[in-house]
TrEMBL record:
The lineage of its organism: Bacteria, Pseudomonadati, Pseudomonadota, Alphaproteobacteria, Rhodospirillales. Residues 269-357 form the D-serine dehydratase-like domain. This is Alanine racemase. Belongs to the DSD1 family. SUPFAM superfamilies: PLP-binding barrel. GO terms for biological process: D-serine catabolic process. InterPro entries: Ala_racemase_N, D-amino_acid_metab_enzyme, D-ser_dehydrat-like_dom, D-ser_dehydrat-like_sf, PLP-binding_barrel. It comes from Thalassobaculum fulvum. One of its GO terms (molecular function) is D-serine ammonia-lyase activity. It comes from the Bacteria. Keywords: Lyase.
Length: 378
């Protein structure tokens, strides 16, 4: 059984049933335009990350503005993207297991497919699958630039792996994956930049050693919404992978800019629409969006443009609002707009995006986009 969308095209905002995942299309498009302008002005390639949006509709909007393709983390996400006509997809991750690798190779019959490796056994598995499917897989060596997640050590270990890729029929060596995940939410601007400049030393060293070994890094990829300006500034990376910028979230909103202000350069464009379902207790109200509607791994959602109201606690299906002393008390049935703490896992909780044109106050539903890769985990 498929879940029906919580609104119809042409509905007023007030008619959207809740909880619902709502895109403010005007803010969303301004975010896409801002990143496209940055890419144009600096000459860098942008390959936005579909782990955030899981939606071919969003991907097409990014590619229409000059993005070179998409990143994703999972083969199942890549399948959704390729089947929706996106012909340039990098799985910015390790793909492990014969069945998954075979699916990845099968996709390469229909699209340019890149993938990462940090282990010789993995390179061999990619090679076997590519030869069996008679395709070419583009493999990036992932190096650990400070996040202590996946990736070989920068330098000689990366060169060894790159040689193996280059020597493996069915594979072509594409370059380096150098993503610094743990730097993205370092709050201080100076400290965040310093983390990327340290990562840049690892990239530079590895790039030089690759060059000395006669290996050409066509792509040096990495960067997220919190850091992409810094990777660009170094001149070392040539492809950016920001995901969250298209929607923003409360956690990214807490990153500080150069002046120490909590003002993200992108606008909040994704909201969880909720409804007050209980307002009997003094100083408190309860909305119908708990942590099954808005992910709380990076902090609770915040209440949009209501600094006097705090989202103070999430249960499965209940969100508890704590009202400031002078706050006007929301009434039963009132609409409350929540800004998710973390967009990526929030999107994965919903089947539909409701796209609204003309603002959250009196806009109109313009589109309903399926979260097509929702739950695409394999
Ligand atoms: N690249 C990789 C490999 C990632 O894992 C992520 C997010 O975790 C991103 C890019 C995009 O990050 P963000 O959503 O913070 O822009
Ligand atoms: Mn994220």
């Amino acid at each position: 059984m498929s879940v029906p969308p919580p609104a119809r095209v042409g509905d007023s905002v007030a008619e959207i049933d809740t909880p619902a995942l709502v895109i403010d299309l005007d803010a969303f498009e301004r975010n896409l335009d801002r990143m496209a302008r940055f890419a144009h002005d600096t000459g860098i390639r942008v390959r936005p990350h579909a782990k955030t949006h899981k939606s071919p509709s969003v991907a097409h909007a990014q590619i229409a503005r000059g993005a070179v393709g998409q990143c994703c983390q999972k083969v199942a996400e890549a399948e959704v993207l390729v089947h929706a006509g996106i012909h340039n997809v990098l799985v910015s991750n390790q793909v492990v297991g014969a069945a998954k690798v075979a699916r990845l190779a099968a996709l390469a019959r229909h699209a340019w497919i890149g993938v990462c490796a940090d282990d010789p056994a993995q390179v061999r598995a990619y090679g076997e699958a590519a030869r069996r499917a008679q395709v070419d897989l583009h493999v990036l060596v992932e190096i650990d630039v400070g996040a202590a997640r996946c990736g070989v050590a920068p330098g000689d270990a990366a060169v060894e792996l790159a040689k193996l890729i280059a020597d493996t029929p069915g594979l072509s060596f594409e370059g380096l994956q150098a993503y610094h995940g743990s730097a993205q939410h370092i709050r201080g601007h100076r400290e965040r930049r310093a983390a990327i400049l340290t990562a840049a030393q690892a990239v530079q060293l590895t790039g030089e050693k690759m060059g000395a070994a006669g290996l050409d890094c066509r792509t040096i990829g990495g960067a997220g919404t919190g850091s992409f300006r810094f990777e660009t500034e170094t001149g070392l990376w040539n492809e950016l992978q920001p995901g969250s910028y298209c929607f923003m979230d409360a956690d990214y909103g807490r990153n500080l800019d150069e002046e120490g202000k909590e003002k993200g350069e992108f606008e909040n464009a994704l909201f969880v629409a909720s409804t007050v379902m209980s307002a009997v207790a003094p100083g408190r109200a309860v909305v119908d969006a708990g942590h099954k509607a808005s992910a709380i791994d990076s902090g609770l959602p915040t209440v949009w443009r209501r600094p006097d109201v705090e989202y103070a606690g999430a249960a499965d299906e209940h969100g508890k609002l704590s009202l400031g002393a002078k706050a006007a008390k929301p009434a039963l049935g009132d609409r409350v707009w929540l800004v998710p703490g973390h967009v990526d896992p929030t999107v994965n909780l919903h089947d539909w995006y409701v796209g609204v044109r003309g603002g959250l106050e009196d806009g109109v539903v313009e589109c309903l986009w399926p979260v097509a890769a929702r739950g695409a985990m394999t």
